[in-house]
Structure formats: structure tokens, C-alpha cells
């Protein structure tokens, strides 16, 4: 009789399971829910346990076909998964602020954290927090298409029609069959954000759900939530209700219809949360261990379940079992660094140097991010480990802000100087802007003026900069290390001081162009000031830092980096560079030459810098071609003066004039037809007596030139060319002088 009743209830459960699943897809109108129902329910049915009813199985197949067509992109699913993983990590770190608790045998039984209840499994977590997720994303992004809803509605009607036939065939009581109204009401109740009202509404309809086990999990789950969050009420009353509901779930779901069951796994883990709060005895521990086995079995080794089980093993001091699970998670690349750090501390506690070394080889060859284990002895090195991780955290912040500042500088420049950009050019380099501005405005071409006016008609640069500043403040406001004390206030005040009143109506003039250069410089100063505040705040929290705080700060910078599409290496020191450095251990360097070799090395570095400077000044000029290999040039273009050849750093060909500009570190000259002009020192370019015309550079004073009989020599010592080229030469001379001054000051 009991077996017959169970068979009828299972038939009703199979029908209800499919019907509720499809109804939730329709009622939630959410692609993530659709994805979850596909993975957790509809594509996970144990067909051997299902009623052998061909029309029902055909409808299920049709449902799966429709879902397959509308499934969400994997990238979007990863957004939810990473947010969930972050919540789990935060919850665990709040319970274990330092590894000493693990290694020294700290009693985690008393920590009181309930991971499964607080965060939930991935399946439950999204449903509990879907409004928050959707607020952060485009509401339409995960919206189920209207066409899909129409198809699912048609299939749901067929399911309800099938229910009548199944009820007649299996003879189960009509109360087992859920009606469309009951399911719709149930779905609405689950969306109720008020946990007291949600519980009361579920409790009022529980008689209708004898043949639907998930209902009893949700009833127990909300009671468990009230027990934990509302201590002002009779919390033990709700705890007992939760226990009864969870027991009811296991009673009617002993032989589940799903091969893997997220609800069953969640029920097991939330039940463990409650049992861990009870007095410590062997019966309770045995029940916890059984529930963990059930959770793992029903989850199909789902990583989110294993993450919770690993932590629960820590709480009941089952370190070997915990180590097995953490090892599995690390090898499966799930929260790798986080789990590897906990696993390393467990190996230290277990004095297992062999497994520690294997772990080190897998995830952190240098051992910088694992708990220290030296000479096979247990080492309580929390303080040293914390300092090590804190140091790396600061490096990660520095790396991120270096990249972030480059992004913001480029965006700022593209707003201010967008009219200077050539076709297809995305970013204006700093060392090109000054020369480009001078060239643009001194050219005085109608085309330039038209381009300038069109650009600023299409863009209100003032509003664009305000928007960029607000975006910048929004970004850095997510970092608690900057919101500490008055960090953000100081940053805002600095922006006010630097940029308030910066806006000047665009005017096609060199003066206006130079004013925008000053605005650009002030914005760069603002970015640098933020970094100063950042590291000042790091210094102030150093004495109170612990692993939990380090983790939170690291999560914040990682989240912001993902948003800004900046990849921060776990180990900020680039491993490729390290590898090259290891190879270079066997290379000879200029130091091998002795003391005088340093002079050669310094000269080599200066020449490299100057070559890059010449490249940056002339690369935007279409009238020239840069020749970097001076040796090859003079092999093909004879020059009798060996000193000039030896000093040459770079050659610039004037394409239209068939001449060459040859640059050294302190002067330049013109080369043409195997002859050369006099050398013109860079520091004479600003002297009044050498004040040249817009398109002329004189290498000799007029009196000297008049004495020269050879017409060719006159020409070569009086460079007459396009004004853009002349301006580039002037700009380069100024840049080289400034560069050499900076080098002199740093000696």
C-alpha cells in the first residue's frame, strides 16, 4: 500500500516538476532562470524514474528544443558565476580572518557563519538576488524574448492537459496535481522580498504541495533565514520550523527524480548550517557528515557545493576531508588562488611537506602566495605572510592605477585634442601633442580651420570632460581604501582646485591650443594625486591589516579592473620577464668592460632615448621618412667627415627636397649629394641672431653666407623647406635640450 502510494506521488511529482519549471521560466521572464531550469531540471531528469508516458516525454523534448534555441551566451552566465564566487569568498573570509585559526586548531565551530544560508548555491543565489543583478546590468539583456514566452505558454497548456490523463492513468489523488493558479501564486510568493510575509504565504499553501518536494526546501529556507536575521523574534521557533521542513523534504524526496539536484544539495547544506549551531555531539556530527555526502552526490561534484562542503569540514575539524575538497577545487581551477592559500595552510597544519610542494609547483612556483612552510616544519607565520600579501596587494594596486591612468589620460586627450588626430589614429601620444598643436595652428590652412570648427560643433568638450571626471570619481569610489577617512574628499577638492573654470570657448588660435595643453597637464596631475592619496591610506592601515581585509581590498580592485578591462597579474612581476632575466644570467653585459664600460652604457641609453624622441616628433609628418640605421645610410651616402658620421643618431629624409637631416645628441646638419651643411647646435635655435623665417633655417650668419662663392654651399646652408618640417626641427631641438637638462639634474 505504501509502495503504491509512493509510486503515485512520484508520478505526480514528475508532472509537477516539469510544469513548475516551465511556469517559472514564463513567470520570471529571465534568461538566467531559463538557463538554470534547463541545466538543473529539464535536462537533468532521471528518465528511468519518470512515468512511462510517451506524450509527456514528447512535450519535455519539445521544451528542451525551445530552451536550446533561446539559451543565454556563456559570457553572460560567467558574470553571474563570478559575482556568486565573490560572495562565497567574502563570506568565508569573514569567518576566517587569518590562517592561524586553521593551523593552530582554532575552533571554527563557533564562528557562526552560515555559507549556504548566507550566500546559497549558485542556483539559489541568483533567484534571491536577481533584482540586484538586473539593476547592475541592462534590464533587456537577460529578458526572455516574447516569442519564447509564447512557445512556452503553448507547451505549458499541453502539460496541464497531460496532467488529466496521467492522473487517470496512475490514479493519484487530485490534490497531488498542481494547478496553473497554484503554480503562478507559488512563483509570486518566491519573489516576495519580505521574508516574514514570504514565510506566512508559503505556510498558508503547504497542504497543496505534498507531491512537490522543492516546496518544503523553500519553506525551510525562508524560516532558516528568519531564524538568522531576525533575532528580535522568537528565532528558535523558526529554527524548529526550518528543521521540520528540511526533514519533510528528505522524507518525500528519498528517491529523487533528478540525476543531479541543486535543491537537494542546497537543502543538505542549509540543514548543516542549522546543525552546526546546535550543541556538539557525535549524533549531530554523523548527521552533518551524511548530509555533506548527500550534497556532494546530488550536486554532481558541482564546485559551488564543494566549496561550501570544504569549509564545513574545516568547521567540524575534518582537516583531511577538507584538504581533499580544496585540492579538487584547485585542480579544477575554481577560485584557484583563494583555495590554494587555504589548502597550503592545511598542509602546514598536517605537516605534509610533499603535498605542499606539489601544490606550490601547480599554482605558485615562487611560493609568494601560499602559507609559508619551511624545512618540513609547521610555522605559525601569519604576520609575515600577511605582510607579504599586503606588499603584493599594493603592487597590484600600483599596476592597476598605472594602467587606469593611461586610459583616462588618453580619453582626456582625445576629448581636448581630437581635432589633431589623423584618420585611423586612436591615441595621441604626449610627445606629439605640442608639435602637432603648433603645426596645426601655424599652418593657417583653411582645411585645418574647417576641421577644427567641425570637431567642436560636434562635441561639447566641456560636458565631455565633466562626464569623464564623474566617471573617474565613480570608479575610484568603489575602492574602500580611498573612501577611508577623507580620501575621496581630498581628491574632489584637488579636482576643484585644478580644473574649476577650465572651460574656454574653442578658438582657432595657437594661444587657445596652448591653454588646452595646460588643462591636459593639470588632469595628469590629478591622476597622480589620487595615487599619492591611495598609498598614503595604505600606509595608515598597515598596522591593522589582516588577511580578511587584504582579501576584501583585492576583490575590490579585481572587480574594478574587470569593469575597466584591465588584467592585473596575480604576481605583478611579469613571469615572462623573470624567465628572460634568468636566461640573461648567462649573457655578458657592458659592465664586463669595467668602470669605463658604464660610460658607454649611459651613452647607449641616451642615444636610444633620443632616437625615440626623433621618431615621435617626425612620425606624424608625411613629408619625411625616418632612417634609424645610420651606418647603413653612410655606407650608401659617402661623407668625408668621420666625426659627423660617428656622432649621428638618426637620419630624416626630406622626401620632396631630396635632402637629409642628420641628428646627433647636440646638433644637426643637412646632407645632400655627398656634401653637408654646417652643424647647427640645438641651443642656438632660439637665439635672436638665428631667428629664421617660417620656412627657412640658416646654418650661417648672413655675412658668412655672402662670402661663400659656391652656389651649392649657399643652398645647403640655407635650409628652405615646408614650414611643418621647420617646426618639427624647432620642437625637436627644444625636446632634446629639456631631455638633457633632466638627465643632468638626476646625476
What is the topological layout?
Elements: H1 2-28, H2 31-42, H3 54-70, H4 74-95, H5 100-103, H6 115-118, H7 122-136, H8 146-170, H9 180-190, H10 195-204, H11 213-229, H12 235-252, H13 262-277, H14 282-299, H15 303-315, H16 319-331, H17 336-349, H18 353-363, H19 382-416, H20 430-442, H21 446-458, H22 461-476, H23 480-483, H24 487-499, H25 510-541, H26 547-563, H27 575-584, H28 595-618, E1 624-627, H29 630-636, H30 642-647, E2 650-654, E3 659-663, E4 667-672, E5 675-676, E6 680-681, E7 696-698, H31 702-707, H32 711-716, E8 718-720, H33 723-745
Antiparallel strand pairs: 1-2, 2-3, 3-4, 4-5, 4-6, 7-8
Helix pairs in contact: 1-2, 1-8, 1-9, 2-3, 3-8, 4-7, 4-26, 10-11, 11-12, 11-13, 12-13, 13-14, 13-15, 14-15, 15-16, 16-17, 17-18, 19-22, 19-25, 19-26, 20-25, 20-33, 24-25, 28-33
Describe, in short, the structure shown.
The protein is mainly alpha-helical and 747 residues long. Among the domains are: 387-581, no CATH class; 598-745, no CATH class.
What is the overall shape? Answer: elongated
Average pLDDT across residues? 76
Report the strand count.
Answer: 8
- Please work out how many helical segments DSSP would assign: 33
Helix % is 55-70%
Structural class: mainly alpha
Tell me the distance between the termini.
97 Å
The low-confidence runs, each spanning 5 or more residues with pLDDT under 50, are 72-77, 105-127, 129-144, 572-586, 702-713
The portion of residues forming beta strands comes to under 5%
Largest sheet: 6 strands, antiparallel
Overall radius of gyration: 36 Å
Amino acid at each position: 500500500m505504501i509502495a503504491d502510494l509512493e509510486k503515485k506521488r512520484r508520478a505526480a511529482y514528475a508532472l509537477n516538476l516539469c510544469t513548475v519549471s516551465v511556469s517559472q521560466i514564463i513567470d520570471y521572464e529571465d534568461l538566467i532562470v531559463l538557463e538554470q531550469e534547463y541545466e538543473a531540471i529539464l535536462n537533468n531528469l532521471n528518465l528511468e524514474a519518470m512515468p512511462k508516458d510517451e506524450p509527456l516525454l514528447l512535450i519535455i523534448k519539445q521544451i528542451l528544443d525551445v530552451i536550446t534555441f533561446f539559451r543565454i551566451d556563456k559570457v553572460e552566465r560567467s558574470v553571474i558565476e563570478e559575482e556568486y564566487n565573490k560572495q562565497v569568498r567574502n563570506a568565508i573570509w569573514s569567518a576566517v580572518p587569518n590562517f592561524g585559526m586553521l593551523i593552530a586548531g582554532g575552533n571554527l565551530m563557533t564562528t557562526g557563519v552560515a555559507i549556504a544560508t548566507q550566500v546559497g548555491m549558485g542556483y539559489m543565489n541568483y533567484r534571491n538576488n536577481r533584482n540586484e543583478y538586473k539593476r547592475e546590468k541592462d534590464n533587456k539583456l537577460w529578458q526572455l524574448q516574447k516569442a519564447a514566452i509564447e512557445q512556452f505558454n503553448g507547451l505549458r497548456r499541453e502539460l496541464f492537459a497531460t496532467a488529466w490523463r496521467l492522473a487517470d492513468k496512475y490514479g493519484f489523488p487530485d490534490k497531488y496535481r498542481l494547478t496553473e493558479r497554484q503554480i503562478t501564486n507559488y512563483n509570486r510568493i518566491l519573489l516576495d522580498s519580505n521574508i516574514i510575509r514570504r514565510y506566512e504565504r508559503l505556510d498558508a499553501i503547504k497542504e497543496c504541495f505534498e507531491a512537490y518536494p522543492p516546496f518544503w526546501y523553500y519553506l525551510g529556507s525562508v524560516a532558516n533565514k528568519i531564524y538568522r536575521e531576525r533575532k528580535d523574534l522568537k528565532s528558535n521557533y523558526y529554527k524548529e520550523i526550518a528543521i521540520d521542513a528540511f526533514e519533510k523534504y528528505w522524507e518525500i524526496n528519498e528517491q529523487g527524480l533528478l540525476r543531479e539536484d541543486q535543491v537537494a544539495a542546497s537543502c543538505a547544506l542549509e540543514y548543516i548550517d542549522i546543525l552546526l549551531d546546535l550543541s556538539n555531539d557525535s549524533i549531530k556530527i554523523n548527521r552533518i557528515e551524511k548530509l555533506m555526502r548527500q550534497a556532494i552526490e546530488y550536486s554532481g561534484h558541482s564546485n559551488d557545493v564543494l566549496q561550501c562542503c570544504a569549509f564545513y569540514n574545516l568547521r567540524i575539524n575534518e582537516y583531511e576531508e577538507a584538504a581533499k575538497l580544496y585540492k579538487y577545487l584547485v585542480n579544477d581551477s575554481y577560485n584557484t588562488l583563494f583555495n590554494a592559500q587555504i589548502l597550503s595552510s592545511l598542509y602546514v597544519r598536517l605537516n605534509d611537506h610533499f603535498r605542499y610542494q606539489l601544490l606550490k609547483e601547480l599554482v605558485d612556483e615562487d611560493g609568494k602566495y601560499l602559507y609559508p612552510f619551511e624545512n618540513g616544519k609547521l610555522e605559525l607565520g601569519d604576520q609575515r605572510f600577511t605582510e607579504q600579501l599586503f606588499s603584493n596587494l599594493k603592487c597590484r594596486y600600483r599596476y592597476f592605477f598605472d594602467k587606469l591612468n593611461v586610459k583616462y589620460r588618453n580619453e582626456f586627450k582625445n576629448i581636448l585634442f581630437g581635432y589633431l588626430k589623423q584618420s585611423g589614429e586612436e591615441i595621441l601620444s604626449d610627445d606629439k601633442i605640442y608639435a602637432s598643436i603648433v603645426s596645426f595652428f601655424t599652418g593657417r590652412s583653411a582645411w585645418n580651420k574647417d576641421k577644427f570648427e567641425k570637431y567642436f560643433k560636434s562635441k561639447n568638450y566641456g560636458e565631455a570632460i565633466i562626464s569623464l571626471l564623474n566617471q573617474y570619481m565613480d570608479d575610484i569610489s568603489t575602492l574602500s581604501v580611498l573612501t577611508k577617512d577623507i580620501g575621496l574628499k581630498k581628491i574632489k577638492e584637488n579636482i576643484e582646485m585644478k580644473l574649476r573654470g577650465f572651460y574656454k570657448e574653442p578658438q582657432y588660435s595657437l594661444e587657445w591650443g596652448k591653454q588646452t595643453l595646460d588643462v591636459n597637464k593639470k588632469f595628469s596631475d590629478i591622476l597622480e594625486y589620487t595615487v599619492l592619496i591611495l598609498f598614503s591610506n595604505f600606509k595608515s592601515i598597515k598596522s591593522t591589516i589582516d588577511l580578511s581585509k587584504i582579501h576584501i581590498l583585492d576583490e575590490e580592485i579585481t572587480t574594478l579592473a574587470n569593469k575597466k578591462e584591465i588584467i592585473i597579474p596575480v604576481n605583478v612581476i611579469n613571469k615572462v620577464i623573470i624567465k628572460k632575466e634568468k636566461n640573461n644570467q648567462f649573457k655578458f653585459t657592458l659592465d664586463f668592460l669595467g668602470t669605463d664600460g658604464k660610460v658607454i652604457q649611459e651613452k647607449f641609453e641616451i642615444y636610444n632615448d633620443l632616437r625615440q624622441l626623433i621618431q615621435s616628433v617626425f612620425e606624424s609628418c608625411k613629408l619625411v621618412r625616418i632612417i634609424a640605421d645610420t651606418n647603413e645610410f653612410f655606407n650608401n651616402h659617402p661623407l668625408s667627415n668621420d666625426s659627423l658620421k660617428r656622432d649621428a643618431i638618426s637620419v630624416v629624409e626630406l622626401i620632396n627636397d631630396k635632402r637629409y637631416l642628420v641628428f646627433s645628441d647636440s646638433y644637426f646638419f643637412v646632407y645632400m649629394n655627398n656634401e653637408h651643411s654646417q652643424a647647427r647646435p640645438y641651443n642656438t635655435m632660439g637665439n635672436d641672431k638665428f631667428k629664421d623665417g617660417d620656412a627657412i633655417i640658416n646654418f650661417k650668419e648672413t655675412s658668412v653666407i655672402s662670402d661663400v662663392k659656391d652656389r651649392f654651399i649657399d643652398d645647403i646652408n640655407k635650409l628652405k623647406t615646408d614650414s611643418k618640417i621647420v617646426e618639427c626641427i624647432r620642437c625637436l631641438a627644444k625636446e632634446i635640450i629639456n631631455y638633457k637638462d633632466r638627465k643632468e639634474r638626476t646625476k
